[in-house]
Amino acid sequence: MTFQRVAIIGLGLQGGSIGLAVQAYLPDVVTTGYDRDAITRTRAAERRLVHKVCDTAAEAVADCDLVIFCVPLGAMGIAAEQVRAALPADALVSDVGSSKQVVAKALGEALPDHVIIPAHPVAGTENSGADAGFAELFRNRWCIVTPPPQTNLVKLSQLVAFWEALGANVEIMDADHHDLVLAVTSHLPHLIAYTIVGTASDLEEVTQSEVIKYSAGGFRDFTRIAASDPTMWRDVFLSNRQAVLTMLQRFTEDLTALQRAIRIGDGETLFNHFARTRATRRSIIEEGQDDARPDFGRADHRADHRTDPKPADS
Amino acid sequence: MTFQRVAIIGLGLQGGSIGLAVQAYLPDVVTTGYDRDAITRTRAAERRLVHKVCDTAAEAVADCDLVIFCVPLGAMGIAAEQVRAALPADALVSDVGSSKQVVAKALGEALPDHVIIPAHPVAGTENSGADAGFAELFRNRWCIVTPPPQTNLVKLSQLVAFWEALGANVEIMDADHHDLVLAVTSHLPHLIAYTIVGTASDLEEVTQSEVIKYSAGGFRDFTRIAASDPTMWRDVFLSNRQAVLTMLQRFTEDLTALQRAIRIGDGETLFNHFARTRATRRSIIEEGQDDARPDFGRADHRADHRTDPKPADS
C-alpha cells in the first residue's frame, strides 16, 4: 500500500465506513477527516471514524496522498474547491459518488492540476450519517473505478489496491457506461421505491395504519431503500438524469404491457413474465450479492427457535 | 380450541407452514393433508408437514371439522368441488388466498351448504413448495378474516382462536376492503418488482452479468419478491384485477410527476418527496413488521465479526 495518509471529506455512511475499514484493514495508514456539519464531526470523533477529525477541510487534506470526497453529488465541486489551496500537488483525488460523469466534471473543474480518478463502491445501507458506517461495508461488494482517458496507471493501480484492501472487488469502467449500469441497478429501483411508498401514503380509501400493518405482504421491502438519504438521492437523479429517464421509459413500457395483460385477463403473459424473473435472483445469490435465506433472513431473526418436527428422512 | 381435526388442501409454503404450526402450537389437533402433486405429497410426508398425507382430497377431509384450502386462487373452486361429497356437513371451510371476494364466490358456489369464512394470513417468503414451510411463519403477522354477512359467530370465533394459537394477530374486515388494502400493500409491490426485474433482463446496453454484479445498489431488494411463485401471482392479478388497476393508476401518476421533476431539474420536489417516505419505514419497524437492522440484517450476517475501534465515549 503506497498511500500513507488518507483524507476523507464527508463522514456519513460512506466516509465513516472507509475510515473504519482503513483502520481495520490498513492499520499503518493514517486517516484524517472533515465534515461540514459540526455535530457529525463530534460524533465522528466519538466513534473514532478516522484517527483525526479536523475543523476544516484544508486541515484534513494538508499532508494527504489520497483524498476521497464522500459528499452528495451536488456538493462535490464546492468541497473540492475548499481544499484546492491546501491539497498537496501529488495527492490523488477520488470520490464515492453514485454518478460518475458529473463527478469527473465537477472535480476536474475545481482541481484542474491534480490526478483525479473517480470511483463508486456499490455498497450501502438505508442508514446515513456519522452513526451509520461500519468497517465491513465494502467486503465482497464491487467498487467501480472510472478512470478518464490517459489516466496515470501507477495512481490507478494504487487506488485499485486500496479498495481491494478494504475488501472490495474492483471493476474498471467508462464513466458513461457506469452511469447507464447504475441507472438500472440502483437509481431506477430507488425512484420506484420512493414512488410506491409515497403513493401508499396518499391513499384515501386505505389508512396509513393499514399500510403499516399489512406491509409484510411485500410493501415493506420497498420501504428500506425509500428510507435512504434524501439529499444524496435528489442529487443522484439530477446528476444522472438522461440515463435514469431512459431506463424509466423502458420500465414504463413493460409495466404498461403487464397492466394490459391484467386488464384483458391474459394469464399466459403474466405467468410467462413471472416465471422468468426467478433466475435473476438465483444468480444474484450465487454471485454472493444477496442473502440466500428466505425473506432476507428476517424469518430466522424473528424465530427464537425452530419448532419443525424431526423429518422422517434424516 | 374446538377444532380437533384440521384438513389442509395444498401443501406448499402456506399449507405446510399451517401443518407445522398446528403441530407446534396445538399438539392435540390431528392434521391431514393433500396436494394434487405426487412429489409434493411425498416430500410433505418426509418433512411431516401434517400427521397424515392422504392420496385424495376426499380422504383428507373425511373426518375434519376445519378444512383450509391453500391452493392458488384459480384452483380454489376445483379443489372445493373435489371434497364436496366427503366433507362433513358441520366442518368449517376456510382458505389462505390473497384476494378475498373471488374466493368467497368460488368456495360458495362449490360448497353451498357449508359455513365458509375466508381468511388471509399476510405472511410469506419468496420460497414455495413442500420445502418452504416453517412453523413460525405466522408469528406476529396479521391474519385478515373476511366473514360474509350473517356469519355464524361461534364458527368465526373458533377460526380467530385458531389463527391466534398459531401466533397471528387477527383482524376482521370486509372482503372488498381487504382486496383494496392488499392491492397496495402486496399486489402492486409484486407487480412493480416483477416488472423491474424483467426490464433489467431485457436491456441491450447493460449485460445481465452487470445487472447481477451491481445489484447491491438497490436492485436486489426487488428480486426477492419477484422470485415468488408465478402461478400464485398470476391468479392474484386475475382475481383482484380492479383494485390492482386502480392502485396502478395512482402509482403511474406519482411516477410521472417525479419523472417530470427529474426532466426539468426540480430538485425541491424530489427532495420533499424523498424526505417524507422515511417515516413510513420507521412506523413499520415500530409495529414489528420488519427488521430494524440496516440492510434487513444482511450486513450482520455477512460480517463474521465487527471490527470497529472501541468508541471513545463508551
TrEMBL record, chains A, B:
Catalysed reaction per UniProt?
Answer: prephenate + NAD(+) = 3-(4-hydroxyphenyl)pyruvate + CO2 + NADH
Matching entries from InterPro entries are given as: 6-PGluconate_DH-like_C_sf (IPR008927), NAD(P)-bd_dom_sf (IPR036291), PDH_C (IPR046825), PDH_N (IPR046826), Preph/Arog_dehydrog (IPR050812), Prephen_DH (IPR003099)
Q: Which organism is it from?
A: Novosphingobium chloroacetimidivorans
Q: What is this protein called?
A: prephenate dehydrogenase
- Is Amino-acid biosynthesis among the key words of this record? yes
NCBIfam families attached to this UniProt entry: PRK07502.1 (NF005694)
An example of a GO molecular function for this protein is: NAD+ binding
Decide whether keyword Amino-acid biosynthesis is in the record.
yes
**Upper taxonomic lineage:** Bacteria, Pseudomonadati, Pseudomonadota, Alphaproteobacteria, Sphingomonadales
Ranges of biased composition (kind: Basic and acidic residues) = 290-314
Query: What does the record give as EC number?
Result: 1.3.1.12
Q: Pathway it acts in?
A: Amino-acid biosynthesis; L-tyrosine biosynthesis; (4-hydroxyphenyl)pyruvate from prephenate (NAD(+) route): step 1/1
